[in-house]
Amino acid sequence: MQLLLLLWLLFEYLAHYAMMIPMGSMSSSHSISVYAYAKINLGLEVLFKRADGFHELNTVFVRISLADALVVSTVSVASSFSSDKIPSNSKYTPDISVQCSPALPIAETDNLAYKAACALYSFCMTNSVKKNYVSSDPEDLTMEYSHAGLRASRTSIVISKTLPLGGGLGGGSANAAAVLRACNELWQCGCDQATLLRIAATLGSDVPFFVLDVPCALGTSRGEVLQPFDLHIPYWIVLVCPGIHISTPWAYAVLSRTAELSTRKATAFSQILPDIIHQPELLREYIVNDFEPVVFAHHPVIANIRDCLYATGALFAFMSGSGSTMVGFYSTVEEATQASNHIRCAFDAELPDMQTFICTAA
Ligand code: C5P
């Protein structure tokens, strides 16, 4: 009995001291699971080309219920700095792996989710270095970061992809924003939302909308200046993704060449939309996407999809972003389902990679 008591005391003692072993000599893993919701643009006006080469926008981002699922995990091991995957803008980086299922036809390091993790890490490291840097020895830097609470080591990002690539739904940008927010928490960077929004804007013009994480916002400037507003969208949404990749820089370049941009006047979307959202005839009159003429001229089949959306009862049909996804608003889920089935059959032969989805604003 005494022997048992002694063994139990020894076990308690060892367990207690095991808990106190510092993080640097052990590894611990944490993970965060998140959904990265897509967006549609309800109205997109390109006002003029700016001196920095970007275009001044006036658009409304609406979050929708279609999403990718991400699992972001880190294993903190204090001496795991890697030198084999160092991006040009950073001296040290944690090991980051990005796995997509199904796999994407791009290199891991070109994935915006990977770039987002690197950008946050570089930002936090620079700030940590500014505050704490005392030695040029990388091992010392490691200590400084863990003192600063930045325990980024081996980070794995696993993405279950639903959102089509390059379809105007902001799939890559939504993933990047989800990674920024998850890594900020996992690495204990402590960046506030304003800082994350600034980092997001360096990754892409619509990444800030996904960091802001609101149902609806007016986007101006490059699209990164955001003003959330209330808008209830009383429709079922059919998304038709034709499987045609539209390059955003190409779409802007063609638009700049062909349209009279300087005469364009911005519509007060956030003022009129709450009033006209229940009146489809006014939506059709006032809510335009300036990229439609450019994209329809080069890919007439996308204009045919718009016609088919209307033929199947859509109250309003329009393109999202620079395409190629077409969006249809329907009154009921039954109508939306029938339309989606019909369009899939109608374009099956011509667009073998086409996908359709039914969703709502979210
Ligand atoms: O910011 P993002 O990476 O989405 O931009 C991709 C390209 O689209 C830019 O390099 C630019 O050519 C074009 N663009 C633009 N004006 C904007 C947004 C994007 O000209 N407001």
Q: Indicate the radius of gyration in whole angstroms.
A: 24 Å
Report the bound ligands by name, code or SMILES: cytidine-5'-monophosphate
Largest sheet: 6 strands, mixed
Mean pLDDT metric: 86
Number of helices: 12
Helix content: 25-40%
Overall 3D geometry?
A: globular
Describe this structure in words.
The chain has 362 residues and is α+β, with helices and mostly antiparallel strands. The protein is built from 12 helices and 10 strands. Helix 2 (112-132) runs parallel beside helix 4 (171-186), helix 2 (112-132) crosses helix 5 and helix 10 packs across helix 11 (300-311). The N and C termini lie far apart (63 Å). Mean pLDDT is 86; it is low at 11-26, 79-91 and 140-149. Cytidine-5'-monophosphate binds at residues 54-55, 57, 204-205, 222-223, 248-249, 252.
Question: Which terms would index this structure?
Answer:
binds cytidine-5'-monophosphate, four-stranded antiparallel β-sheet, 362 residues, alpha+beta, single chain, 24% strand, 12 helices, globular, 10 strands
Blueprint of the fold:
Layout lengths: L1 H18 L8 E22 L5 E22 L18 E7 L10 H21 L5 H10 L6 E7 L10 H16 L6 H11 L3 H6 L3 E6 L3 E4 L7 E6 L6 H11 L10 H8 L3 H7 L4 H8 L1 H12 L4 E4 L6 E5 L2 H15 L7 E5 L3
Parallel strand pairs: 3-4
Antiparallel strand pairs: 1-2, 2-4, 2-5, 5-6, 7-9, 7-10, 8-9
Helix pairs in contact: 2-4, 2-5, 10-11
The structure holds cytidine-5'-monophosphate.
